[in-house]
Amino acid sequence: MKTVLILLLLSxxxxxxxxxxxxxxxxxxxxxxxxxxxxxxxxxxxxxQDSSIITVRRRGDNLSFVESDQVVSISTDRPGxxxxxxxxxxTTPATVFVLRDSSRVEGKYVRRDSxxxxxxxxxxxxxxxxxxxxxxxxxxxxxxxxxxxxxxxxDTFANRFSPWLVMGQTAYNPExxxxxxxxxFIVLTPSDATFSQMNEFAxxxxxxxxxxxxxxxxxxxxxxxxxxxxxxxxxxTLFFSKLTFSIGDQFRFGINAGYQPRxxxxxxxxxxQVTLQGLMTFGNSQRNVTLGYGRRFFPDYATFPKLxxxxxxxxxxxxxxxxxxxxxxxxxxxxxxxxxxDLSVAFRIxxxxxxxxxxxxxxxxPRYLYYGGFPAPNGNETRAYFSPYIAYNLVFGRN
Length: 399
What we know:
Blueprint: H1 2-18, H2 24-28, E1 32-36, E2 41-50, E3 53-57, E4 63-67, E5 71-75, E6 94-99, E7 104-112, E8 117-121, E9 126-129, E10 134-140, E11 179-189, E12 194-204, E13 209-224, E14 227-246, E15 251-260, E16 263-265, E17 268-270, E18 273-283, E19 287-297, E20 306-319, E21 322-331, E22 341-350, E23 354-367, E24 370-371, E25 374-375, E26 381-395
Antiparallel strand pairs: 1-2, 1-5, 2-3, 3-4, 4-9, 6-7, 6-10, 7-8, 8-9, 11-12, 11-26, 12-13, 13-14, 14-15, 15-18, 16-17, 18-19, 19-20, 20-21, 21-22, 22-23, 23-26, 24-25
């Protein structure tokens, strides 16, 4: 009789330790919502359950591994706020791991290897995720904090467009299997109102390799004899590819290559050029500094065959929905009449799957002064041209 009573008392504990069991229907669905005991929600496709570990495929073919006893329920629709998500009396600093899909995991770092990060949550349970999913690690203080459901006004949207600065790029790649789009509108030269609209596409072939294309029409709008004359000048098409590597947690190295064929329309043409650039990014995908060195080759120009430049860019997440950007390019051997530096500042308004960039581009151009066909004795002067800029960024896909 005592043995039966002991088994009856221990059976709830044994069942709880076993955790939830997935069904064949759960693995057939392309997307499921897993409600965790700490109130967080994990979204993805359930792949399998081995022993006490459930494998979930998230966006970009990234895998997450959770213990089955952490899962409260599995559903096809996003669950509401769980009562277990309410935290009270939290006065000590807490470590929050922010993932690429804007989800947050609060807990204590346990260990990390080349394939997995292990974090122990406040309730003692362990959770696992790949290093590529981690955006940043924050330390927060709260008193009587309540976990908000995903999609609320208090969500922190990560900057999903870390591969792009204002006009240049970082050593981060687009996510594997994702198509990115950036549409930019800029007034290049306010003096003669030349407008440029850039349409850029990038696709992540692997975690380290991406390809893309840049289509840039140029329109000229001048005041001729008291009337406006709008001319469609040309369409510049640029093909590029980027290969990046991660070296440690805070450093990435990349090689960016681009090719623009010779194109002509009416009396305006763009020259053939080949660009090779090395990139170094220090920091994480949300707060980083990118330095680059590159050369642009012009096969059609014998007198000016190449242009050497260095780049310096900053990307800094300053608020839940806002990222500060600065992208600067300095030409070491500027061409006659060309820019000696291109500077820029912008703010990126982050949302879940898209973002808006608002900023200004500054072209620094030396002007050569002449007097009677000879250089002026006072030398040259330098002028800066300010151009407003707006861009729209979008990542295609459901997540």
